[in-house]
TrEMBL record:
Upper classification of the organism: Eukaryota, Sar, Stramenopiles, Bigyra, Labyrinthulomycetes
Transmembrane regions listed in the UniProt entry: 449-471, 483-501, 513-536, 542-566, 573-590, 596-613, 734-752, 758-777, 851-875, 887-906, 926-945
Name of the protein in its database record: RCC1-like domain-containing protein
Residue segments, region Disordered: 975-1004
Native organism: Mucochytrium quahogii
InterPro entries the UniProt entry points to: RCC1-like_dom (IPR058923), RCC1/BLIP-II (IPR009091), Reg_chr_condens (IPR000408)
Bias (Basic and acidic residues) ranges: 981-998
Keyword annotations from UniProtKB, A to Z: Membrane, Repeat, Transmembrane, Transmembrane helix
Any Pfam family hit: WD40_RLD
Residue span(s) of domain RCC1-like: 3-349
Length: 1004
């Protein structure tokens, strides 16, 4: 056992102990209970004292400091306040104790409300949890706490001696996985009652809670019959258990023991565990559960286990990723009296007759320091049972078993679901690449299929592998990380296509130059991102978390959720039914049979509907099944395999070509957008408890972007939205590997065209719509649960909502821009005539008719930056930090002045960005915004002055003195030039009253 944080309690020696060692300082102390979790330990003595030692960074030792303690030290607070303790419990960084009077005391970290003190500050000494009385039991999980309150009540007015125990179970702390059992996944900083079903309500006359336990992220309770009820009842001579086990919380590895029908990633209320016999006691481990069951009062007690079993912690004789249903642990057949579970190991206390031990062992037991107090009638002893040696295994067999175990970890339900969602997102992106580069940039189909698509897929493959490996490296037996989703962002794709490559092609007619410009721009963005790593720490400190989440939510609700929603409702017969399947599977955590991913089932269902309708000669689709440009399987001839090739010569030629440099001014704004997007997504992962190093993430993103530009991919990569949704699905790093392999195969075989020829896209986009909805909801729901500072409270929801508006404007403008060419084509009775109606004239006419299209365009220009500074401003206003809000307005004024936001110019073909010092646009919009933001900053400064009364008084006093001194100096100067005037002393005597109010003079 390791003791790096002094949790072993030894003064000398190494931090590793492979055999039990006596703690010298407790040798003469009668210890009756021990509790340990995380990296600290508690010990309870027979006279009610509590000793603690180990790690203490959050005050979990209760000693009044945050310094680690090497040896057991008594918690003096209990002694000084006359509190005698009868029970103790440990969480990861918090602790709890129950006094003889039934009061609950907690201390340590309280970030998620683990101590129940309704504050976010850590408690370095024990404090009483208010609102609870007659506490009987307490159990601590990683960052949550269960409390059992028991009290007796009279059951009969005739016989007052007939009593019953009425109890209730309360929970508080971290609730992200439903481990509090209160019906949702929110944190609780004060005790909240656990919600049981009506037939198992522990306050009824028949049922009571007899035992509770906590695992890492799950909770357990045993419900027993009340006084006067039988322990078991029979039905058709089959003995049915009455002591039932209930479980709730995280069920990723089956640690709740629920059947496949009831299994889900999380359970927010207690669920009945199906057991073969009556439950006696239970223990929760890191990701597994161990219980003792008994058929009848005179039968032997047997041990059962279920959950995670990668290290053999279930004790079933072999290692496996998971064991979802309770299974008996085969021991020597001895009676099991108690069980305990650690993170990845388990232990049991067995009843073993003394005659089973030889004389040598008996002699050793007699010599134990302090004595065992044994007599011939002593029936129990805890013995370490070492597993028998396994037969020698060949090297090939070892490799095969390890590979099989790793493959089973990757091919889980959550990874398959998330991997399919990632794959579908890339598939839709490839279809857009096929259509856009051919129609807008003029690249031949063979070039797109043979060069751009394989390069883009290879880039996504490398990025998914890199970020998947990074998640594996950060994972440990205590924590499993979900890989950050990384690849080609849809927003960046449209920006590079519409703002860089399309303008080049329209002005020069050279498709190759347009493609080369895209490659050079992608390469330069990656190169410029590397020096910006030094600004990341400052940016994360300056930009409020609500602003980051708002920028991410804005893109999610518009370009992801809304885009796919209107697509689904344009083809309801094919889209809505698969959407319902997605909503059921993800909204209620229902698993499909045989672990079929919900997205795949939705796609199969949509394909079945549309091809069934075609067989019946019924047209259900609006438009075609797939874009015509994407289904031309013969465009590349008979070639089947398209391997990526290097585009280094094209990049070098582009860097040396002066024409290329005249079109890449948009790289700087795109760099800012890319960094803001990355920071928002990294912040989103931190909200869900997975902190990735920002500099490393951005460095990897920059290098992958550079790599992509050198293999033919003209689009930068970035970390994009979906981490929280994937994590809620139960995905780890495995989904990233699944996506990587499938996307690479898709790219080198031109599979996008073939897949979408037979499967309707609208049937599969429901899962992407769900991801957009979940990410948007998390921007509102998670802020107050995971932010330590008081400023990140629920009131910041308004700031998040404000930050959504620029993205909404950008999304609406995208549809408006597509509408005008479509109307022009209809008027000219042509399908390829986008510019018959001058675009600028249409916009001016719309503005003149009360449709504020200029405001829509202005707000959409640089919408991510606008979202950041508007949301940040409101965050500071809510926190009454008006000076900081004014600084954000000054930044907005600066960005407007140079055209980074709100800048545009119109021509007959569309909307163009305009950058400069200052920017020149229609009606001088940037200058107007600059003036408005400067004025707003001035107003906020006035509010800051008003907020600080001391500053106002000091400023007014200074002004008054200066004015008074100015007038006095002026009068003195006048007297020098009027010598005939007599100067009366009383004119300068401030104590003399006004002349109009004659009275006694105070002048001397």
């Amino acid at each position: 056992m390791t003791g790096d944080d002094f949790q072993l309690g030894h003064i000398k020696g190494t931090s590793l102990s492979s055999v039990p060692r006596m703690i010298k300082s407790l040798e003469q102390v009668k210890v009756v209970a021990i509790a340990a979790r995380g990296a600290h330990t508690l010990a309870l003595t027979g006279d009610g004292k509590v000793f603690s030692w180990g790690r203490n960074d959050e005050g979990q030792l209760g000693l009044g400091t945050r310094d680690p303690c090497r040896t057991p030290t008594e918690i003096a607070w209990f002694r000084d306040n006359g509190v005698c303790v009868k029970k103790i419990a440990c969480g990861r960084v918090h602790s709890a104790a129950i006094s003889l009077g039934g009061d609950l005391y907690t201390w340590g970290c309280n970030d998620e409300g683990s101590t129940g003190h309704q504050t976010s500050e850590s408690q370095v000494v024990p404090g009483e949890v208010l609102g609870l009385a007659k506490v009987e039991q307490v159990a601590c999980g990683s960052r949550h706490t269960l409390v059992l309150v028991c009290r007796e009540r009279q059951m009969s007015w005739v016989d007052p001696s007939i009593l019953n125990t009425e109890n209730a179970l309360y929970a508080f702390g971290w609730g992200m996985y439903g481990q509090l059992g209160v019906g949702d996944r929110r944190n609780r900083s004060a005790p909240s009652q656990v919600v049981f079903s009506r037939d198992a309500l522990p306050t009824t006359d028949k049922v009571r809670i007899s035992s509770i336990a906590c695992g890492y992220r799950h909770s357990l309770a045993i419900l027993s019959p009340c006084q006067g009820q039988s322990d078991t009842f029979t039905d058709d001579d089959d003995e049915i258990p009455f002591n039932t086990l209930w479980a709730w919380g995280w069920n990723r590895y089956g640690q709740l023991g629920l059947s496949e029908k009831l299994a889900s990633s999380c359970c927010e209320t207690p669920m009945l565990v199906s057991l073969p016999h009556s439950a006696v006691t239970v223990a929760g481990g890191g990701r597994h559960t161990v219980a003792v069951l008994q058929r009848s009062s005179d039968s032997a007690k047997r041990m059962y286990s279920w959950g995670r079993n990668d290290d053999g912690q279930c004790g079933i004789g072999f290692a496996s990723p998971e064991q979802r249903e309770p299974i008996r642990v085969r021991s020597s057949g001895d009676d099991v009296q108690a069980v305990a579970a650690g993170w990845s190991h388990s232990a049991a206390l067995l009843e073993i007759p003394l005659e089973a031990f030889d004389e040598t062992l008996n002699r050793d037991l007699e010599n134990v320091p302090g004595g065992m107090g044994r007599s011939p009638s002593t029936p129990f002893f805890s013995a370490i049972r070492r597993p028998s040696e396994l037969a020698p295994t060949s090297t090939f067999r070892k490799v095969y078993l390890r590979a099989s175990s790793r493959l089973s970890e990757i091919m889980t339900y959550g990874n398959l679901d998330a991997g399919f969602a990632q794959f579908l997102n890339t598939l839709i992106l490839l279809l857009n690449i096929l259509a856009s580069l051919r129609m807008r940039v003029g690249l031949p189909q063979n070039t797109v299929i043979g060069l751009v698509v394989p390069g883009a897929c290879l880039t996504v493959f490398v990025s998914n592998i890199v970020f998947g490996v990074w998640a594996d490296m950060k994972s440990s037996p205590a924590t499993t990380f979900t890989a950050l989703p990384h690849g080609i962002n849809t927003v960046i794709f449209f920006a590079y296509t519409m703002l860089i490559m399309t303008p080049v092609y329209e002005k020069t007619g050279d498709a190759q130059l347009a493609y080369r410009t895209g490659l050079v721009s992608c390469f330069l963005l990656g190169v410029l991102e590397l020096p910006c790593l030094f600004l990341v720490t400052m940016m994360r400190k300056l930009i409020p978390r609500a602003a980051m989440m708002s920028a991410m939510a804005g893109v999610s609700i518009t370009f992801i959720a809304m885009t796919f929603t209107v697509q689904i409702f344009s083809n309801p017969a094919v889209g809505i039914i698969p959407l319902v399947v997605v909503l059921v599977c993800y909204g209620s955590n229902v698993q499909l049979p045989y672990k079929i991913p919900a997205g795949l089932m939705a796609l199969m269902l949509g394909a079945l509907i549309i091809w069934g309708a075609k067989m019946l000669d019924i047209d259900l689709m609006v438009g075609t099944v797939a874009p015509p440009s994407a289904v031309d399987l013969n465009a590349s001839g008979k070639k089947f395999l398209f391997l990526p090739t290097t585009s280094l010569p094209e990049v070098i030629q582009g860097l040396l070509d002066p024409r290329t440099w005249s079109y890449i001014t948009v790289v700087i704004p795109m760099l800012i957008v890319n960094m803001v997007t990355n920071l928002s997504c990294i912040e989103g992962s931190a909200v869900h408890g997975e902190a990735y190093d920002t500099k490393k993430a951005l460095a990897m993103d920059a290098l992958i972007t550079i790599f992509g530009s050198l293999v033919g991919n003209p689009y930068p990569t970035c970390i994009y939205i979906g981490h929280g949704a994937f994590k809620s699905m139960g995905a780890t790093s495995g989904y990233s590997y699944i996506s990587a392999v499938s996307v690479l195969l898709l790219g080198i075989t031109n599979g996008a065209s073939g897949v979408m020829q037979f499967v309707p896209e609208v049937a599969g986009v429901g899962i992407l719509m769900w991801i957009g909805i979940v990410v948007t909801a998390q921007a509102f729901d998670r802020d107050d649960d995971y932010t330590e500072e008081a400023s990140s409270s629920k009131s910041h929801a308004a700031a998040v909502a404000l930050g959504l508006l620029p993205a909404l404007a950008a999304w609406c403008l995208q549809y408006l821009q597509a509408t005008i060419p479509a109307c022009s084509a209809v008027i000219s009775n042509s399908t390829v005539s986008p510019h018959h109606i001058p675009f600028d004239q249409v916009m001016k006419r719309l503005e003149a008719n009360g449709i504020f299209v200029f405001g829509l365009i202005s707000l959409s220009r640089g919408y991510l930056l606008s979202s950041i500074f508007l949301s940040s401003m409101l965050v500071e206003i809510v926190d009454r930090q008006f000076k900081n809000a004014a600084m954000w307005m000054l930044l907005a004024a600066s960005l407007s002045f140079v055209g980074a936001v709100h800048s545009f110019e119109l021509d007959g073909q569309g909307i163009n960005s305009n950058y400069g010092f200052p920017s020149r646009t229609l009606g001088e919009f940037p200058l107007k915004y600059c003036f408005a933001y400067l004025g707003s900053a001035f107003v906020l400064i006035l509010f800051e002055i008003r907020e600080n009364d001391t500053s106002i008084k000091r400023m007014l006093q200074r002004c008054k003195k200066r004015i008074s001194r100015t007038f006095q100096d002026s009068d003195l100067k006048k007297t020098r030039y009027r010598p005939s005037r007599s100067i009366d002393r009383e004119d300068f005597d401030e104590r003399k009253p006004l002349r109009s109010d004659r009275g006694p003079s105070y002048a001397t």
